[in-house]
Amino acid sequence: MGGSERTPAQSAKDLGSELYANGDYAAAENAFTEALSLATQVDRSELHIFHSNRCAARMQLANVDGALQDAKKCTELAPRWAKGWSRLGACQAQKGRYSAAEASFRTALSLDPGNETYRAQLSNARAQMRPPESPGGGRGEPPRRSWADRAWAVARAAAVQRWWAGLTGDQRGLLAAGAAVAVLFVAYEVYNSLFGHAFYGDPFYDSLADYGGRWTWSFWILVLIGGWKLPPMFGYPPFFGMSLVHFVWLLQMLQNSSAPRRRYSAPGLYRRRYW
């Protein structure tokens, strides 16, 4: 085997690293798992890296227990590798085991004294271990809420990512269309509340004021032009994938269904009525 040729396990690890860099943590975890299953004696020297990488992916997916197992295995395989101890400390901190995390970070820093990341991790772990001063001067409970909130946020983000990855192209298009409708509706309401005014005695009151003001059609014309010109700049097809007829029909539907009718109670004053 040539020196530059990659083994199947190493190729799987490379794929996992690429997926991780792209934010696809679930697929990255699967790739690192495959790398471990394909590993042979040739890959023995890299097993701790495979476990370390899978640990990182699992942490992003809020699978702290699985990440902790990988971190422990990593430190068993390579006890002199500082990064493995850093991974282990991060997992222990997420579990609320701050004393163990402090010891792991201390080990990582002793193996790599110049690493500022490990130094910061050690300081954070020690801060979590130190009870804060209470208003009366006593000691309070360790501030564990921040770690719990962070774990919850990571878990929610991972769940949303898995949900989005499971959608088909048509489902994503439908969601994008729904979001576009919502944005257009909100934009219409904001515009109408700011500029949709008619004045007492205005000869255009009957024909224009009932539909939100004389500038409404100008606004929708701008939206129509924007729908044609702007989306391709953001990677979307013109009109968000809709035909011109359907797009105009959508604007007309929003115009007729959401526009307020106005009646005056006194000169210069009006009240909004919805039918």
From TrEMBL:
Keyword Transmembrane: yes
Record-linked SMART domains: TPR (SM00028)
Keywords: Membrane, Repeat, TPR repeat, Transmembrane, Transmembrane helix
Gene Ontology cellular-component terms listed: membrane; TRC complex
Pfam families for this protein: TPR_1, TPR_8
Single GO molecular function: molecular adaptor activity
TPR repeat copies, ranges: 82-115
Protein's name according to its UniProt entry: Carboxylate clamp-tetratricopeptide repeat protein
Organism: Tetraselmis sp. GSL018
Classification lineage: Eukaryota, Viridiplantae, Chlorophyta, core chlorophytes, Chlorodendrophyceae
